């Protein structure tokens, strides 16, 4: 095999244009680079935007060094089937201008407030990022939390008498824009930044809620050397993604003109109410992901594709979606079925490797958001438990014993499970009654504790495939 020595850079690719900075983006992770920055590139390719994003690392450790070493260029590899066509594309993305690490260069970070051309702010700091950190300090260089950092930047902008920003967070939490705005306002109050600043925040800035959708498995570790040989350059931050993309932004109509994503042919909707889109995506895509993870891992499967290629498991996913999830959503069933069919196609994407363990991160809070609301509604409306969600719940609780599958969750949550599992006989009752995990006492839900105990025993005695076989027929 040829040994590659050339790193991707502006000198290896002098034809790539550098566009003026128009967006500040918190988060330099795989998702944002394959989603937002990829879309900026598409608009730039068509001469519709002429703008780049300056990236800010939300935490001290990050990819800034790797990005700088290749002049902030990187490759996005799209693999999958879209509109019945196989897509296997590679594109060098040149829509990132630089990455600022505010922990080592706070002055450059605050200096962003001076640049009039910067009009948009986007972010993805994981679900953990949009959080109020009591005691975060205005004189921190930088403040610790993402909303704290943003408040400091916005305040500098206000002091300079400049116009505000359109702020579009992409974190997968409900009402992300409103939540971010509330926390920024809270810091403004904590830090005594004054009533005029609060007014400027409200009147000069637009916080938009948004919902993102693109499966981004990230750096293709297993194929990197092969791909670099094919590309003809070294790239430490290349990223693989599916071709499908969807971005719903709850914002003013004028946004579609200022950020002409849809005009560039991208699947982006600007709407006054994104609720139905969020419900559909979180329950029909993220919900099945979260259900398949513990069941799949307990059966020794590794990827979403493994699950979908297994007859029993794929039948389980289909039944879960059609019999338990769709009937509980207040949207036209036909539209939901069509969306769900497309989702299952995306799960089957033979060209990407989406690890179940990568989805398993923080599975308890994911279950609470993605599947628990449906389980509760089903029980309330039908007077019985949804069997598939309940089995997945039991598998999740069993997996959190930590002896059969690797766990990735906060130390506090892992400790709660260690304590509860120390007495297996009372485990189900203890864990279901823990309101800090579920927001309510689930041991009070008729039949749940008994069902969970039955499934726990079943999953101990047989493997999860056998339990699924009994259920899906
Ligand atoms: N990968 C996908 O398929 C996908 C699809 C849609 C949405 N998302 C969302 O994107 C998020 C990031 O996924 P990724 O694949 O880019 O991961 P990644 O590990 O490549 O990037 C994580 C990013 O989040 C930041 N971050 C991590 N912990 C943080 C914290 N505690 N506070 C502030 N910032 C923090 C990091 O600095 C980095 O910029 C996920 O949590 C998910 O909500 C991912
Ligand atoms: O990104 P996470 O860890 O919150 O969730 C894992 C997957 O469910 C998620 O990344 C989906 O692939 C994504 O939401 C598709 O748009």
UniProtKB/TrEMBL annotation:
Its EC number is 1.1.1.58. Pfam families: Mannitol_dh, Mannitol_dh_C. Residues 273-459 form the Mannitol dehydrogenase C-terminal domain. GO terms for biological process: D-galacturonate catabolic process; mannitol catabolic process. Residues 22-262 form the Mannitol dehydrogenase N-terminal domain. GO terms for molecular function: mannitol-1-phosphate 5-dehydrogenase activity; tagaturonate reductase activity. GO terms for cellular component: cytosol. This is Altronate oxidoreductase. It catalyses: D-mannitol 1-phosphate + NAD(+) = beta-D-fructose 6-phosphate + NADH + H(+). The lineage of its organism: Bacteria, Bacillati, Bacillota, Bacilli, Bacillales. InterPro entries: 6-PGluconate_DH-like_C_sf (IPR008927), 6PGD_dom2 (IPR013328), Mannitol_DH (IPR000669), Mannitol_DH_C (IPR013118), Mannitol_DH_N (IPR013131), NAD(P)-bd_dom_sf (IPR036291). Keywords: NAD, Oxidoreductase. NCBIfam families: PRK03643.1.
């Amino acid at each position: 095999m040829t040994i590659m020595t050339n790193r991707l850079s502006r000198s290896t690719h002098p034809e790539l244009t550098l566009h003026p900075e128009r967006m500040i983006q918190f988060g330099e992770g795989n998702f944002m680079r394959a989603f937002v920055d990829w879309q900026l590139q598409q608009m730039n390719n068509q001469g519709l935007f002429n703008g780049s994003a300056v990236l800010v690392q939300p935490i001290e450790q990050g990819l800034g060094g790797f990005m700088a070493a290749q002049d902030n260029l990187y490759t996005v590899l799209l693999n999958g089937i879209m509109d019945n066509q196989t897509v296997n594309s590679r594109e060098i993305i040149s829509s990132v201008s630089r990455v600022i690490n505010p922990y080592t260069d706070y002055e450059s970070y605050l200096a962003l407030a001076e640049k009039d051309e910067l009009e948009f702010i986007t972010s993805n700091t994981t679900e953990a990022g949009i959080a109020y950190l009591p005691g975060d300090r205005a004189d921190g260089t930088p403040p610790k939390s993402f909303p704290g950092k943003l408040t400091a930047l916005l305040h500098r902008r206000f002091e300079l008498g400049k116009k505000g920003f359109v702020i579009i967070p992409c974190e997968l939490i409900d009402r992300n824009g409103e939540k971010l705005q509330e926390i920024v306002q809270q810091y403004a109050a904590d830090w005594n930044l004054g009533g005029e600043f609060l007014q400027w925040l409200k009147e000069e800035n637009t916080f938009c809620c948004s919902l993102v959708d693109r499966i981004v498995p990230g750096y293709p570790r297993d194929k990197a050397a092969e791909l670099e040989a094919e590309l003809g350059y070294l790239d430490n931050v290349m990223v693989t993604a599916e071709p499908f993309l969807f971005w719903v932004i709850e914002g003013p109509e004028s946004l579609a003109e200022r950020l002409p994503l849809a005009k560039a042919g991208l699947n982006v909707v600007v709407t006054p109410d994104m609720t139905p889109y969020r419900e559909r995506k979180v329950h029909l895509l993220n919900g099945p992901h979260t259900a398949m993870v513990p069941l799949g891992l307990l059966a020794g499967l590794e990827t979403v594709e493994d699950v979908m290629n297994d007859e029993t498991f794929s039948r389980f996913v289909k039944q879960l979606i059609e019999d338990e999830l769709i009937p509980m959503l207040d949207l036209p069933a036909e539209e939901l079925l069509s969306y769900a069919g497309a989702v299952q196609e995306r799960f089957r994407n033979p060209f990407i490797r989406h690890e179940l363990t990568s989805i398993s991160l923080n599975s308890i809070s994911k279950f609470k958001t993605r599947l628990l609301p449906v389980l509760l509604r089903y029980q309330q409306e039908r007077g019985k438990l949804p069997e598939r969600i309940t089995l997945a719940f039991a598998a999740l609780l069993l997996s959190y014993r930590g002896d059969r599958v690797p766990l990735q969750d906060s130390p506090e949550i892992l400790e709660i499970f260690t304590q509860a599992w120390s007495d297996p006989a009372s485990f189900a009752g203890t864990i279901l009654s823990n309101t800090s995990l579920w927001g309510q006492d689930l041991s009070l839900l008729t039949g749940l504790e008994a069902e969970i105990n039955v499934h726990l025993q079943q999953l101990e005695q047989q493997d999860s495939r056998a339990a699924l076989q009994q259920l899906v027929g």
